[in-house]
Amino acid sequence: MTVKITTLMENTSGAPFICGEWGLSMLVETDENTFLFDTGPSERIIENAQRLGVDLSKIDKIALSHGHYDHTGGLQAVLINLLESGAKPDGIEIIAHPDIFQPKFVHIKDAVTRDIGIPFAREELEALGARFNLSPDPVQINSFTTTTGEIATTTEYEQIEATLHTKKGDQYVPDELADDLSVIIKTEKGLIVLLGCAHRGIINTLNHARQQTGIEKIYAVIGGTHLIGASRQRIDATIAALKEMKIEKIGASHCTGLAAAALLANAFKDAFFFNNAGTRTVL
Length: 283
Hints:
There is one protein chain. The chain is an alpha/beta fold and 283 residues long. It has one domain: 4-Layer Sandwich (Metallo-beta-lactamase, Chain A). The chain has 7 helices and 18 strands. The chain has helices at 44-51, 69-72, 75-85, 122-126, 202-213, 232-245, 258-268; strands spanning 4-9, 25-29, 34-37, 61-63, 92-96, 105-108, 112-115, 130-134, 140-142, 145-147, 164-168, 171-174, 183-187, 190-195, 218-224, 249-253, 272-274, 280-282. The strands form 3 sheets. It has a 7-stranded mixed β-sheet. Strand 9 (140-142) and strand 10 form a beta hairpin. It is globular, with a radius of gyration of 18 Å. The N and C termini lie close together (9 Å). The mean pLDDT is 97.
């Protein structure tokens, strides 16, 4: 079985004429189907797809990792593209957690409050063909691929960023990011785990993937690890846990941060790669 991953959007460009923009989107081609994991922050995903020779009309499902704009802001453009191509006359399934439309903010008391939620109403997306499959539990994408559903937080050193909030009434309250999910692909070499932001912790996510599938071997991890701004102690603990798992490929993206990515590259040598916009990975 072959899995091909094309990163359509990421903070930085890894190829000529490809736009880099804060966010993440990966197109995943498998033997059974083609699906999109996240849509980046804007309509520039369409431009990148065209320049990379990617035919978005082939996708039959979209999975959203969580409800932040930098992973969902391109959704409207993708739906319009599918509608105009006539590829999905009955609409397209979008897999996400029920909290995907929950209000989301960066909130620092007496300093700044910024809306970072999905920038569209559910109704306007449904009018463009979105068929939402919202579940806190794992959802099947194909016979060997699922979402994680809600991820338990069990490590002592992985915490959700304190500035991330939601709103209850007029009050800002910490966002537990229950909607943070990842994608698990079962292969002969082990699990491939695709991360959106891993807000609930990369190690928590990988342990969850092992428990959910009953498969211990994790072959590859690709996506955002949310180590940006993390303490050196947390980064070191994360690297130690990843080494113990004997992961063979680590593709860092987006919210990993340059400092943490450099430490990962040093620790994992040839097993590490920068998963930038335009990166094509065959696993």
